[in-house]
């Protein structure tokens, strides 16, 4: 066991953990933010996706010892009131069914749009194909990313 | 608003709703169907019932709707309140939705399976909600000394037409409670619906976009420990011995115990590692050494299972269950006999949320929390397994991260309850992805031998299907293993049989240690591939258009309407030379769904799916957008099972353990899906499952149309087609 300082959603947490413990379990069980999900444990499904210094990563396969003092953002850090454009688009397009994979999907889409405000279908495929949705919400995810893009662009043009 | 004022307001609401009368309506027993009971919460009998009824309106006008079914993605969380809000005349946004606890007495069946939520309860819910509305109207009329006929309800208020006087439901509750519920309420004409039939956004969506929806894995109880279980990978094996010395040395590990849980007629055995964190439990499990006794049962491979099924359809003892005419005579005398064998794989449910369950066994009672499809079943069935009476078991549903039939099984709540009982603490048992994917129960792998003869007019003169594969019902304790599998024609519209002059269906049950269970759309998910592929083969042999050929065998206008709509939206008749079109139509859980798949060759010569059209006739329906979502999702799931994944067995164990080998369709694999809903006033049918079965045969029929090659075994790689 060792002590680690985690910066999650602009807050600092000190956790006592086995250095090999994946970030996923530190976020869920030590910090208590349960929006980030366990799906496979081997970086195959994307349900556990969080941002590390703005880049989407699989928290199930990242030891907590590797992420100390780096900026971590979870689904709770996007906004708690669903005001983030990607969350708004997800609601507008009624994407979730069971909803379990959607935290990861939303984190991946947010990272994509930050890098590329106008993604085409191919860009969406590349950014999102690491994410499994067993309910099959893929057609709506594609639509919602385009909707989020236009929400963000119209906000940007107002500024 | 400060935190303090929030708390005091919440307390105020809670206290006032306990101390004053609330209008609470529900059925005492679903069995007695039409009896609506008004319960005065001040009375002794109502004390237990109050929180568990369907609708409750407190004196502040706050409406609480209890949802008795689980929400696993299919939209019941939205659809049940949408029905109630329509006839109750309240704004859906002003309604508080609460999951019911498990209780057959209060809600009737709560099992969320068979796509039964709406079709099983909509009439009762409409009636109940209208009854509450009429009582509130009567209460207002009495208060104003006006005839009820001059009053109407709107948006949580009763309004007097002449004077414009208005009373909030909350202010009428005390009076309404004293009224006798009317027995002759009039339901709305569907054309007057304001909420039903509208694509109302789901109330659970905002919870699922900011991480606040509580799934089973997210639930925590004070003092809760975590457990993972090393279970026998060969289904029937026993724990011979185990060495937990390494496990107990892992910091945080508290207990290592042997567990057994019921899996149909057998016990599944394992060793549970209980720790103060999930991570510690997982680390402890890695150090565990278990010796299994795997004697006394077969260690199958997939090849062996299918070889046996191939033999069974030829020479096994057939349990016939649907016969008409003289199939043998027609098949032996006709010069125009077709024969084909179709195979479908075993599948894991692979819900994105792996199985998990919390149990807190204390003082002769047990409280369960989890992603559970049948809370009433858990209460009724698990109670005796853990030595309790059903009323001492409380079952709470969380949101389910997928269900598809798997979370209707009782093994994981049973196991959690046993562990909690033994360690005397609340515990959450978590199945890893590998546990979830390898332990089953699985969708059974099936094999179908179809034979058919055409008449000289090109219609079906005889139809026979011999089916091999496991009969789910035969796994139950005391099951008659000589009984036929009456689900073995599910998916095939019954109305076809009217026009087949001779037919026989029968099955040869396969014995195997592999546990099998419902998987979205159950046997329809595999049957449809055989039946709708074979009908296509018959259509081609009869030199007829596949849609025309099907229509010729349907004597019911609903099927024609679905096929006509499909033809229209897909431009079926206007196909180009380099395109393949395939159709399939199935009936599952009282809904009729037709699908057309269009394929073409890419520039590299590989086959691609260009588009899928689906037409759903589910009769009376609630929310068109939820239906569209279910159709889209069913097609994606069907595509997974037809082209991407399967569970295989080797040496008695499941081979595919995680998503690296159980390969799922991804966003880049999914074609455009165009969904159409038929508008009619037929009885409500299911929505969550019926659009899964037609996809695979529509796809393989399209590939035949393009390439002339029949695909009779699933899954297959599209790029190899």
Describe the structure.
The complex is a heterodimer of chains A (159) and B (721). Chain A is of the alpha+beta class and 159 residues long. Chain A has two domains: 2-77, Beta-grasp domain (Ubiquitin-like (UB roll)); 85-158, DNA polymerase, domain 1. Chain A has six helices and five strands. In chain A, strands 2-1-5-3-4 form a five-stranded mixed sheet, with helices on both faces. In chain A, helix 3 (85-92) crosses helix 6 and helix 4 crosses helix 5. Chain A is globular. The model of chain A has no long low-confidence stretch (mean pLDDT 96). The radius of gyration of chain B is 28 Å and the shape is globular. In chain B, helix 2 packs parallel to helix 4 (117-144) and helix 14 (524-541) runs parallel beside helix 18. Chain B folds into three domains: 13-208, Aldehyde Oxidoreductase, domain 4; 216-296 and 355-430, 2-Layer Sandwich (Aldehyde Oxidoreductase, domain 4); 317-347 and 442-720, Aldehyde Oxidoreductase, domain 4 (2-Layer Sandwich). The longest helix of chain B has 28 residues, at 117-144. In chain B, strand 26 and strand 27 form a beta hairpin. Chain B has a seven-stranded mixed sheet. In chain B, strands 2-1-3-4-5 form a five-stranded mixed sheet. In chain B, strands 14-22-21-20-15 form a five-stranded mixed sheet, with helices on both faces. Helices cover 29% and strands 24% of the residues of chain B. Chain B is α+β, with helices and mostly antiparallel strands and 721 residues long. At the A-B interface, helix 1, helix 2, helix 3, helix 4 and helix 5 of A face helix 7 and helix 17 of B.
């Amino acid at each position: 066991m060792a002590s680690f300082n985690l910066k999650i959603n602009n807050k600092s947490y000190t956790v006592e953990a086995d250095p090999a413990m994946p970030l996923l379990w530190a976020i869920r069980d030590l910090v208590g933010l349960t929006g980030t999900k366990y799906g496979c444990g081997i970086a195959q499904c994307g349900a556990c996706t969080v941002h590390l210094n703005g880049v989407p990563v699989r928290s199930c396969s990242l030891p907590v010892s590797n992420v100390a003092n780096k900026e971590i953002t979870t689904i709770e850090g996007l906004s708690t009131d669903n005001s983030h454009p990607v969350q708004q688009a997800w609601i507008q397009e009624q994407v979730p069914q069971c909803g379990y994979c959607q935290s990861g999907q939303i984190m991946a889409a947010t990272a994509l749009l930050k890098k590329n405000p106008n993604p085409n279908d191919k860009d969406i495929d590349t950014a999102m194909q690491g994410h499994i949705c067993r309910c099959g919400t893929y057609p709506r995810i594609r639509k919602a990313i385009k909707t989020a893009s236009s929400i963000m662009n119209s906000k940007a043009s107002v500024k | 608003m400060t935190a303090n004022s929030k708390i005091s307001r919440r307390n105020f609401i809670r206290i006032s709703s306990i101390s004053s009368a609330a209008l609470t309506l529900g059925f005492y027993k679903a069995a007695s169907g039409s009896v609506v009971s008004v319960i005065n919460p001040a009375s002794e009998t109502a004390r237990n019932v109050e929180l568990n009824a369907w609708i409750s309106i407190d004196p502040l006008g706050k409406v609480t709707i209890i949802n008795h079914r689980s929400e696993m993605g299919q939209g019941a969380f939205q659809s049940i309140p949408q029905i109630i809000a329509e006839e109750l005349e309240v704004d859906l946004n002003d309604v508080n939705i609460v999951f019911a606890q498990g209780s057959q007495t209060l809600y009737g069946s709560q099992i969320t399976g068979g796509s039964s939520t709406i079709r099983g309860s909509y009439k009762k819910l409409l009636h109940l909600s209208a009854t509450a509305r009429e009582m509130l109207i009567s209460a207002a009329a009495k208060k104003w000394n006006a005839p009820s006929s001059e009053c109407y309800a709107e948006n949580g208020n009763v309004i007097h037409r002449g004077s414009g006087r208005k009373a909030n439901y909350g202010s009428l509750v005390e009076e309404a409670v004293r009224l006798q519920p009317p027995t002759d309420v009039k339901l709305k004409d569907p054309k007057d619906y304001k909420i039903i039939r509208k694509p109302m956004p789901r109330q659970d969506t905002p919870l699922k976009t900011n991480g606040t929806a509580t799934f089973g894995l997210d639930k925590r109880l004070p003092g809760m420990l975590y457990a993972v279980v090393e279970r026998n990978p060969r289904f029937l094996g026993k724990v011979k011995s185990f060495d937990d010395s390494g496990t107990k040395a892992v910091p945080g590990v508290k207990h290592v115990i042997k567990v057994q849980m019921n899996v149909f007629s057998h016990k599944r055995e394992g060793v549970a590692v209980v720790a103060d964190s999930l991570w510690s439990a997982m680390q402890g499990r890695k150090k565990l050494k278990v010796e299994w006794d795997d004697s006394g049962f077969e260690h199958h491979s997939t090849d062996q299972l299918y070889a046996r099924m191939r033999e069974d359809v030829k020479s096994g003892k057939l349990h016939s269950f649907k016969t008409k005419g003289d199939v043998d005579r027609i098949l032996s005398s006709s010069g125009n006999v077709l024969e084909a064998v179709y195979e479908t794989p075993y599948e894991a449910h692979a819900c994105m949320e792996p199985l998990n369950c919390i149990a807190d066994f204390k003082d002769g009672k047990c409280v369960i929390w989890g992603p559970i499809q049948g809370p009433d079943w858990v209460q009724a069935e698990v109670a005796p397994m853990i030595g309790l009476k059903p009323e001492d078991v409380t079952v709470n549903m969380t949101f389910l991260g997928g269900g598809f039939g798997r979370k209707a099984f009782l093994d994981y709540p049973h196991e959690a309850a046993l562990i909690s009982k033994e360690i005397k603490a609340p515990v959450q048992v978590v199945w890893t992805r590998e546990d979830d994917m390898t332990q089953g129960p699985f969708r059974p792998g099936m094999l179908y031998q179809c034979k058919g003869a055409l008449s000289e007019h090109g219609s079906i003169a005889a139809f026979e299907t011999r089916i091999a594969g496991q009969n789910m019902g035969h796994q139950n304790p005391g099951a008659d293993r000589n009984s036929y599998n009456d689900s073995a024609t599910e998916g095939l519209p019954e109305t076809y049989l009217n026009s087949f002059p001779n037919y026989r269906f029968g099955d040869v049950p396969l014995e195997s240690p592999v546990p099998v269970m419902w998987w979205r759309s159950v046997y329809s998910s595999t049957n449809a591939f055989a039946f709708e592929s074979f009908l296509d083969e018959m259509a081609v042999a009869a030199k007829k258009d596949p849609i025309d050929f099907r229509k010729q065998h349907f004597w019911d206008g609903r099927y024609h309407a679905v096929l006509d709509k499909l033809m229209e939206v897909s431009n079926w008749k206007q196909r180009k030379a380099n395109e393949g079109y395939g159709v399939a139509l199935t009936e599952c859980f009282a809904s009729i769904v037709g699908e057309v798949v269009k394929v073409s060759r890419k520039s590299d010569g590989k086959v691609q799916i260009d588009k899928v059209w689906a037409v759903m006739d589910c009769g009376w329906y609630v929310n068109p957008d939820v239906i569209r979502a279910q159709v889209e999702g069913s097609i994606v799931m069907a595509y997974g099972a037809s082209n991407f994944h399967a569970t295989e067995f080797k040496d008695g164990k499941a081979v595919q353990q995680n998503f690296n080998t159980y390969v799922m369709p991804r966003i880049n694999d999914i074609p455009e899906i165009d969904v159409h809903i038929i508008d009619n006033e037929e009885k409500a049918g299911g929505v969550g499952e019926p659009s899964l079965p037609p996809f695979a045969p529509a796809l393989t029929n399209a590939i035949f149309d393009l390439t002339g090659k029949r695909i009779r075994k699933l899954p297959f790689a599209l790029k190899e087609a």
